[in-house]
Amino acid sequence: MAKRTVLDILVKNHAGVMAHITGLFSRRAFNVEAILCLPVADGATSRIWLLVNEDGRLEQMMRQMRKLQDVYEVAACSEYTSVFSDLTSVMNTEMETVE
Amino acid sequence: MQKMTGAECTVRLLERQGITTIAGIPGGTNLPLYDALSRSETITHILARHEQGAGFIAQGMARTTGKPAVCLATSGPGATNLVTAIADAKLDSVPLVCITGQVPTPLIGTDAFQEVDTYGMSIPITKHNFLVRSAQDLLTVIPEAFRIAMSCRPGPVLVDIPRDVQVEEIAVDAFPLPASADAPPVVAQSDIEKAAQMINSASRPVLWVGGGVVAAQADALCKEMAETASMPVTMTLMGLSVIPRDHELNIGMLGMHAERYTNMAMEGCDLIVAAGVRFDDRATGKVNEFCPNAKVIHIDIDHCELDKLRSASLGILGDIKDVFSKLLPKIDSKPRKEWNEYLGALKAAFPQHAPMESGFESPQKFIRLVGEIADDSAIVTTDVGKHQMWTAQSYPFTGGRQWLTSGGLGTMGFGLPVAIGAALAAPDKKVLCFSGDGSLLMNIQELATAVEHNVNITVILFNNQCLGLVHQQQELFFEGNIFSCEYPVALDYVTILRGFGWHVCDLAEDCSEEIVRQALATEGPCLIHMPVSRDEKVLPMVPPGAANRVMIGGDSNG
């Protein structure tokens, strides 16, 4: 399996911001393995974690992301990958179906 | 404190930004904006006949002035029709502010009449976009849109305003200041020192300039830099007007339709000073075989362009004008005799394919003739196809914002509406639009807009009754299997254009220099119709996907 890392992104919290971020990846056929997003502080900003493969295009993706008007900060932090591993056990349980 | 509607507020903000001309088409969801616009004393509205036309008219204004221009469309089909013009502006970094009407906020997401997700649709083709939620927000959104459109690498910004936001009444205490562009990134002094040292120690340097140099208005500095270092200059399609055509250091456009000696010169260089270029495949050919032995200094205002396709030996983030003005005093004046003699020998061994003489025998000779007759200040637009490449190869450019062509997106239908926009922005200049029959038909409705405003444009129509570049590629690369690119019925363009109220000069009937002079001296919209054989090709040519050293044709002087 390719080496993974997490992109830690601080964004302006509004309805279209996720589409801006994910669009950058989808139109370059760059797969996002997992996404976490929570509002932070007073809700004016959100923090997004993207689990991605660490390949040669990552630097270009980060530069593209910094160009987005709604993105305040971008960093790559491989130590956060464990958070996604912990979530795997939760997400792997069967979905509760409403009868 | 003034009470006003969102629509009135928008129009006031546009006025304060210095906007005097807006192109657009009214419809259900932007009617409050149009109602407010009707009362503006400073803004003239240009009623286009198709929203794509409106978008390209705005592009013509923006490309001519370098300042953001505005277009206006309604929701749904109005917005979708704008899309091509916006995408074109994105790829060529043209500052636009596109304002669209949207269905009322409570109806968004209900598949209402003429509703389309304009916000979502415009994300990949704009520099930024907004969906305005309240009239109060307009006070920040409109100036922001202009600031973003014009800052650093310019680009299109879309503002989607729901109808209820346009009619909402608000109290405005004070208007925000008109937006201005952000300061460009500060260039590191160490980069300047390193670049100077690399240029001074290079024995075979080439300066490669593109649209970024035009945007930065750094053409004069580029010329000075080239002259000081005796460094030959090659251009991308977007940078053709940076150096005058007849300048002794001008080695022409590189890439797919370059002269042979230009691509060969690139093979031989040891340093490329790449300024405001983005290593597009049409310029580099197969990118990993592009000048493999050369070091690269890449100067660009957009960090994403550095190392995107070719890692630079030195990437400099900054405004080209700023970088060159700091770099120039550190450049040694050198004759570089050996290198320039080598280039001279290349030129002698592989003479220019584009004709040296003007005349009527070929489209290229005719383009030269038009260029020689026209004033040096004329603005040149093109559509996309053979005529575009012939114009790129043969028009005697003299400099500046003279050359408006669809470089990145390659949009057929670009030429006519952009010419209208250019003529509106520079009413004292002649605007020439070189076009083909395939392209002209794609926005032919704007012939009406041109007549209505009596713009001073001359369309030179090369009519080969086919999609010429497709025809050429099918002939060369699909074993002559010509399919779906010929127009079997000969349209009577002379009658069509006269029907729109244009002056017409038909070279099929009679051709002499005097007739062309008369046509170019005509004030207002005028057509020069020139029939062209389908067999006239664009040569030389690098086959798509091949390295630039692999060229077809061009070993003889046509």
UniProtKB/TrEMBL annotation, chain A:
This is Acetolactate synthase small subunit. The keyword Oxidoreductase does not apply. Keywords: Amino-acid biosynthesis, Branched-chain amino acid biosynthesis, Transferase. Its EC number is 2.2.1.6. GO terms for molecular function: acetolactate synthase activity; acetolactate synthase regulator activity. It holds the Pfam family ACT_AHAS_ss. Belongs to the acetolactate synthase small subunit family. The keyword Secreted does not apply.
TrEMBL record, chain B:
It holds the Pfam family TPP_enzyme_M. Residues 192-327 form the Thiamine pyrophosphate enzyme central domain. It comes from Halodesulfovibrio spirochaetisodalis. Residues 4-120 form the Thiamine pyrophosphate enzyme N-terminal TPP-binding domain. Its cofactor is thiamine diphosphate; Mg(2+). Belongs to the TPP enzyme family. GO terms for molecular function: acetolactate synthase activity; flavin adenine dinucleotide binding; magnesium ion binding; thiamine pyrophosphate binding. Binds 1 thiamine pyrophosphate per subunit. Binds 1 Mg(2+) ion per subunit. One of its GO terms (cellular component) is acetolactate synthase complex. This is Acetolactate synthase. SUPFAM superfamilies: DHS-like NAD/FAD-binding domain, Thiamin diphosphate-binding fold (THDP-binding).
